[in-house]
Amino acid sequence: MKRITIGEAARRSGVKVPTVRYYESIGLLAAPSRSEGNQRAFEPADISRLTFIRHARELGFEIEAIRTLLTLQDDPNQSCASADAIAKARLIEVEQRIRSLTALKAELEIMVEGCGHGRVDQCRVIEVLADHGQCTHTHH
Questions:
Q1: How far apart are CA 82 and CA 64, in angstroms?
Q2: Is 58 helix (H, G, I), strand (E, B) or coil?
Q3: Cβ atoms within 10 Å, residue 59
Q4: How many other C-beta atoms are found inside a 10 Å radius of the C-beta of residue 107?
Q5: For residue 116, pLDDT beyond 80
Q6: 117: alpha, beta or left, given left = phi > 0 and alpha = psi -120 to 50?
């Protein structure tokens, strides 16, 4: 079986080479075997693991949550309750972020709509940014 170089592993998984090394350094990815020239030699399973990590990161999962999910993936006969709990917690975070972004959008719309397109000394955008008390929503 032909071994896969780090560059090829990065290309196939969509993970940049420095990130592959980082995941190896923090233990998300086992250290691959080395060629006679001391180059990393990845297996197809490593590519699958890198793809899993990349996808989880794209969905916003933190490294420790991914570590737990990988541990669960490595032992497929156990209950998926932990994986469900991790996904539910991430969903709650996303819903909170959506509420915050919706409030921010409304505030920016009011700010922009109040702009008279005159001079800066009459600019509503500058006024609101200079005085947070003029904001209609409180951000956390």
A1: 13
A2: helix
A3: 12
A4: 17
A5: no
A6: left
